[in-house]
Design brief:
Layout lengths: L2 H10 L1 H5 L7 H9 L6 E5 L5 H8 L3 E6 L2 H11 L4 E2 L11 E6 L11 H11 E12 L5 E2 L5 E2 L4 H10 L3 E10 L7 E9 L1
Parallel strand pairs: 1-2, 1-4, 2-3, 4-5
Antiparallel strand pairs: 5-9, 6-7, 8-9
């Protein structure tokens, strides 16, 4: 299974990964939070070192951080001072529990064949009118990076079609250039959608 190497990477490099110099995606965070009522309930999928959760908590939101890596969850807990649920995206079983789902650079590790189910689980977890933020490394085929981490590398067209079929509304996908942990130039897709 492709996620074994990806999971192993995050377990073995959790502290280095969590404590790396990372620019907070402040512009995207602020845009996402602007679409929510004060104190809204947010589920973070793949919280990594916890920096995004810490920012949202500091802004007064009710954040539920999760990560698939036990070690990364431990790092995030140390930063934010609250429990982080260890959970794979495929285990999400909440029903109309959240106003927003923040999945920044995390769903990009879901095998392409499992993305429809994961998006359906996120849709169910949101209340009507709830919003999703997700970001992906753009491409046209699944693959691996130099660290052996799996990526689904979708195109904007493919994602748009998938979300439309899944019943999402107000789908917006933007593209931008950036980087990643591997230090390589990366084309990013940022997805916003509403249940």
């Amino acid at each position: 299974m492709p996620l074994d190497c990806t999971s192993a990477f995050y377990e073995e490099n959790a502290e280095t990964y969590a404590k790396r110099a990372r620019s907070l995606p402040k512009q995207q965070l602020d845009a996402f939070l602007a679409g929510l009522a004060p104190g809204a309930a947010i589920l973070e999928l793949g919280c990594g070192g916890g920096q995004d959760s810490a920012y949202m908590l500091a802004r007064g939101f009710d954040v539920t951080p999760t990560d698939g890596s036990t070690e990364l969850a431990r790092q995030a807990e140390a930063l934010i001072g609250r429990p982080v649920r260890v959970m794979l995206f495929q285990e999400l079983d909440a029903d109309s529990a959240f106003d927003g789902v923040w999945a920044h650079a995390s769903l990009l590790h879901v095998p392409t064949s499992e993305l429809p189910d994961v998006f359906a689980r996120i849709w169910r977890a949101l209340r009507t009118g709830g919003i999703l933020h997700a970001s992906f490394k753009a491409g046209n085929a699944e693959g691996y990076d130099g660290f052996g981490r799996y990526y689904n590398y979708p195109s904007a067209e493919w994602l748009s079609e998938l979300l439309t079929k899944g019943g999402w509304r107000n789908i917006a996908i933007s593209e931008s250039d950036g980087g990643g942990y591997d230090g390589k130039p990366t084309r990013w897709l940022t997805v916003g959608a509403e249940r």
